[in-house]
Amino acid sequence: MKKNLKIYLASPRGFCAGVKRAIEIVDKSLIKYGAPVYVRHEIVHNKQVVESLKKKGAIFIDELTDIEDKSRPVIFSAHGVPKSVPVEAQKKELSYLDATCPLVSKVHRESEQLFKNGFDIILVGHDNHPEVIGTMGQLPKGAIKLVETKEDAQDLTNNDFTKPIAYITQTTLSVDDTAEIINCLIKKFPNIKAPIKEDICYATTNRQLAVKTMAPKCDMFFVVGSRNSSNSVRLVEVAKKAGCKSSHLVHFEKEIPIKDIELSTTIGISSGASAPEELVQNLINKVKKNRTVTIEEIIVAEEKVIFKLPKELN
Is 131 a catalytic residue? Predict the structure, then answer.
């Protein structure tokens, strides 16, 4: 006889409005322009999403120089691109669509405005993440100083700056870790200018809140998402910090630790903002093979945000 298992299921989870919009831009471009269309970098950080779009006729490239047929459109990923990329596209006479998440674009505009108004800018984010590369690439080299940790913030001194200071943040960070870094910056630089509205996106905040609520009740916690998905990796960290030490990222190649689940009475499941819901259901179905499952959805917010598509696709 199968043993009982309680699954707490996070809500919201999975696709956010920015990811839905980016995927729809590729889908609609394939319908409007026919295959192939080029996509610079992974449209969102999820292997299954990328593979399904490849099957429909999307060709993923690292740089614009990899485009073989210049008559085909190219789409920029949801993470945003440095200013140099659309400039290069125009020089090459490529037609392009920008799938940058509007909340990332907001941070781009913020950085430009601060620079124009004479501020030195600190960006709280992760080095080499595509979003950070895109944000730093909105301004001349050296105009933005990257801070990754509390220690980085503590190492800064007034000598590092010649103008008033402002900070912006990557949209997919840990809410709590970012708050620690920002508090440190405020202590060091009491006059530092904050964003008018915080930069961490609503979807990141909601998904982390759901995980925080659930994790203390769970023997194990699973976040479905890719290893290069910042928001998915952060969800695992949040679950561990909230009290579930046995928290794991379920990615493309990851085997489900069925033996460990056998020893559990409660597990939690969430998914990153670029993970399709079918992957969550696949995980639940695998667990059901060995256990009698009851599911309780933990709802912390209702998301009704919808972002418009570029005018070329309307």
Answer: yes
